[in-house]
Design brief:
alpha/beta; Rossmann fold; Luciferase, domain 3; GMP Synthetase, Chain A, domain 3; 31 strands; binds 5'-O-[(S)-butoxy(hydroxy)phosphoryl]adenosine
């Protein structure tokens, strides 16, 4: 059996084996040096080499703080790059998407590039027929079925801007995202399978567009066959529209800087932000990171477990992987249905070569026990990846040994919804793979670790992770209708000179970057990004709540979990009230945001200016020193809270 990494060296690092090096696209550090010398020239060359353009650009990069553009004047079509060109080059019969339904008695479905080409053109015509034009927004609220990629690619084909909303988000969250983007069309399904049960998605969609809504048309995919209500003139079945659709639709020639999609993500306030990505820069980096980080070759079967509703799903379950002409596997269900070895069964049966998931999922699998993967032959695997949060040593080792059979490297990929593609990782042919360390900036990416005064920190001192100009081509181009927020969130800390990632980091060996976590009020619950303010708003909407504060608490599986302190109005604390509050969060945001603990308090610790001291609340729930409480308006509140949380100090 091929071994893709060496044994651990004296420092505990792993290196690519000779075999891995000779196979890899990138075998040594030369590319890093070349790119660092002139990142703009590097991206100029890579953009031409990897992506097909209808018209070349006049200027490669423009930087007017805090805005930048790439490949200015260039024209392209992302859908053409993901689909048509592979058909034209003779790869039409190659599988593009292997779809695995959750129910065991259903057959998998394979969509070749040729078939995908047909479906995408037809659906693009469906959208046009319904009046969707270039620049219009289309909200996609779909489960993990290939219609999700078809819908996204069809939007890209005609220049409509999609906004995909995670299918587990509540109707209220969906409504907020629809209203903010002013989407005309919503694409959803009747339902989908989740641990053997049908989730009635159309019901949620109906609730989200009831009353006043910008949505004029709803397209419904028949997936689970559950009963749904179809509103006349508003709701249409996907298959009926497709049966009537014209076959050919030429890809629109779109401007490099024209938006490709909006994706809502949590910021430090209660309101989700619509991160904007544009055609040119995004697809260039989606392509190159897919090819180099996952070292994609023609024979690979790539599987990313992320939901299509997150940026990972966009870039590595659709655009980046398809742009390289690789086959991706797409699974509808959960890892534990019908049993805890479902993922490993899928790897074995489909000979998956590259597997990409999140630390929280790895910790969950580790907790279920190594007997589950041990039941299966995982020897097809060559490369493993993680994303979403820092990976701890234990989870890393479990993954490396039990899934990778100590043969496969792990690429720990750091990036954000805002960056669109991986920016920090270790390339599989270069190494070293250091547990808990993401690695180096991807060639052509300029990052630094700085203190609050913009000085680079030296050695292994921790600091703030920032990006410097030239900014990565795939970095966000703004927040949908929230310019002030864009500037405040990413540019104010460093006088519009650096982009703030809002993550902390430190260097290892002066070269490799370890991410230490968020430095703002954003939590990472099971790899899902949630702001404390969002949960606070939801809880505070309950009639009995006077005020509340949510902080993050370490959690063995989820990484972090929300801990809510609640002060009531007149009401008495009770289990029933607690359940109502849990339910409020579930309904307002979705099950992922549900607090681990709700603790009732008499008062919250406050500064004299009335600000809640979340830092002290965090110390309380993590048993850390609380610090000086004498400057508080109400120091006695801390004593009561110590009892409430069982603080041991
Ligand atoms: C935040 C972004 C990128 C897709 C999934 C999450 C954290 C992400 C890593 C990693 C340590 C990581 C950061 C980042 N994060 N990847 N490999 N190591 N932390 O996207 O929801 O926009 O969250 O996730 O804190 O800022 P997102």
């Amino acid at each position: 059996m091929k071994k893709w990494v060496t044994d651990k060296d004296s420092k505990g690092y792993y290196w690519p084996s000779e075999e891995a090096k000779s196979y890899a696209w990138v075998k040594d550090e030369k590319i890093y040096e070349e790119a660092a010398k002139d990142p703009i020239a590097f991206w100029d060359k890579k953009a031409r080499e990897g992506i097909s353009w209808f018209k070349p650009w006049k200027k490669t990069y423009l930087w007017k703080p805090p805005y930048y553009k790439w490949f200015i004047g260039g024209k392209l079509n992302v859908c053409y790059n993901c689909v048509d060109r592979h058909v034209e080059s003779g790869k039409g019969k190659k599988p593009a998407i292997i779809w695995i339904p959750e129910p065991m008695n259903e057959e998998k479905k394979v969509l070749t590039f040729e078939e995908l080409h047909k479906e995408v053109q037809k659906f693009a015509n469906v959208l046009k027929e319904l009046g969707v034009k270039k620049g219009d927004r289309v909200t996609i609220y779909l489960p993990m079925i290939p219609e999700a990629q078809i819908a996204m690619l069809a939007c890209a084909r005609i220049g409509a801007i999609h906004s995909v909303v995670f299918s587990a988000f509540s109707p209220e969250s969906l409504r907020a995202r629809i209203d903010d983007a002013k989407s005309k069309v919503l694409i959803t399904s009747d339902g989908y399978y989740r641990r053997g049960k049908i989730v009635e998605l159309k019901k949620n969609a109906d609730e989200a567009v009831s009353g006043k809504s910008p949505i004029k048309k709803v397209i419904v995919v028949k997936r689970a066959g559950n009963q749904v209500e179809m509103k006349k003139k508003r709701d249409f079945w996907w298959h009926e529209l497709m049966a009537k659709a014209k076959e050919k639709c030429a890809p629109a020639k779109l401007d490099s800087e024209q938006p490709l999609f909006i994706l809502y993500t949590s910021g430090t306030t209660g309101k989700p932000k619509g991160v904007i990505h544009v055609n040119g820069g995004y697809i260039v980096m989606a392509y190159w990171t897919s090819k180099y980080v996952f070292d994609l070759h023609d024979e690979d079967i790539f599987w990313c477990t992320a939901d299509i509703g997150w940026v990972t799903g966009h870039t590595y379950n659709c655009y980046g992987i398809l742009a390289t002409g690789s086959t991706l596997l797409f699974y509808e269900g959960t890892p534990d249905f019908p049993d805890k070895d479902r993922w490993w069964k899928i790897v074995e049966e489909n000979k998956v070569t590259i597997f990409y998931t999140a630390p929280t999922a790895i910790r969950m699998c580790a907790q279920w026990g190594s007997e589950w993967p041990a039941k299966h032959d995982l020897s097809s695997l060559r490369l493993l990846g993680t994303v979403g949060e820092p990976i701890d040593q234990q989870a890393w080792s479990w993954y490396f040994e039990n899934i990778g059979g100590s043969r496969c490297p792990i690429v720990d990929t750091w990036w954000q919804t805002e960056t669109g593609a991986t920016l920090i990782t270790t390339l599989p042919g270069v190494g070293p793979f250091i547990p808990t360390v993401a690695g180096r900036t991807f060639p052509g990416v300029t990052a630094d670790i700085v203190d609050a005064e913009k000085n680079s920190v030296s050695g292994d001192m921790g600091g703030y992770l920032v990006l410097k100009s030239p900014f990565p081509p795939s970095l966000l181009r703004g927040l949908w209708k929230a310019e002030k927020k864009y500037i405040e969130t990413y540019w104010l800390s460093y006088d519009k000179e650096f982009y703030s990632t809002n993550d902390g980091a430190r260097r290892v060996d002066n070269k490799y970057i370890r991410i230490t976590g968020r430095v703002d009020d954003v939590m990472n619950v099971s790899g899902h990004r949630i702001s404390t303010a969002e949960i606070e708003n939801a809880i505070a909407s309950h009639k009995n709540v006077a005020e509340c504060a949510v902080v993050s608490q370490p959690h063995p599986i989820k990484g972090e979990a929300p801990f809510a302190f609640v002060v009531l109005k007149e009401a008495q604390p009770s289990e029933q009230l607690k359940n109502e509050l849990f339910e409020t969060v579930r309904v307002k945001i979705g099950p992922i945001a549900k607090p681990e603990v709700i603790a009732f308090a008499d008062a919250l610790p406050k500064t004299r200016s009335g600000k809640i001291m979340r830092r002290m609340l965090r110390a309380l729930v993590t048993n850390q020193p609380i610090g000086d409480t004498t400057t508080l308006l109400n120091p006695e509140s801390i004593e009561q809270l110590k009892k409430v949380v069982g603080y041991k100090g």
